[in-house]
Write a structure and sequence with these properties.
This protein has helices spanning 2-20, 112-131, 140-161, 165-184. By secondary structure, it is mainly α.
């Protein structure tokens, strides 16, 4: 029992000491901030409009110093009677054929006929590569890649017909690389 009373007295003493040390400290006094006065408003005067020039009286017309006219005069007299139309059965000469302007192309690119031949060779090579692929035992995914390559080959041939040589060449190259990937697996 003696131990219990001793323990209670220690607890009461500890509790009272804890309450005594839990007081808040006051913040140190600091000087108040000095706020400067707002700047004085400076109002600039608005710009004054420039004075309008005074009207000047009309000047007299300038007399030409050179008696020669500035344009050559028409030397043919004006025709008053209409020219009679030809009643012969001669046909009017056919209009001159319209020559189309040459197509612009980048330097170093072949002429359209030569470019068409080169792209056709690439398309044929891609078609042969695709035809040489053995499709037996292909999975659905590889079959879809093969069919996609067939579609690209058709697009390349259509681009060649439209004279879109760059696009046709890119498509044919893609078909050829796809055929090599499918054949190498």
């Amino acid at each position: 029992m003696k131990n219990v009373i001793l323990g209670l007295s220690v607890l009461v003493g500890a509790a009272s000491a804890a309450c005594a040390s839990a007081s808040a400290k006051a913040p140190p006094d600091r000087p108040a901030l000095e706020v400067p006065a707002p700047p004085a408003k400076v109002v600039e005067p608005s710009p004054r409009p420039e004075p309008q020039p005074e009207p000047v009286q009309d000047l007299p017309p300038v007399q030409p110093t050179n008696s020669k006219p500035s344009r050559p005069a028409n030397r043919e007299p004006a025709r008053t009677d209409p020219k009679p139309e030809a009643t012969t059965t001669e046909a009017a000469p056919p209009p001159a054929p319209v020559v189309p302007a040459p197509q612009l192309r980048q330097p170093g690119t072949p002429e359209s006929g030569e470019a068409a031949k080169q792209v056709q060779i690439i398309i044929d090579r891609a078609a042969k590569s695709l035809d040489s692929v053995n499709t037996k035992g292909f999975t659905k995914a590889r079959r879809a890649v093969y069919e996609n390559a067939r579609g690209l080959l058709t697009q390349a041939q259509e681009a060649l017909k439209k004279s879109d040589f760059d696009n046709a060449k890119k498509l044919a190259d893609k078909v050829e690389s796809t055929a090599k990937e499918l054949g190498g697996r």
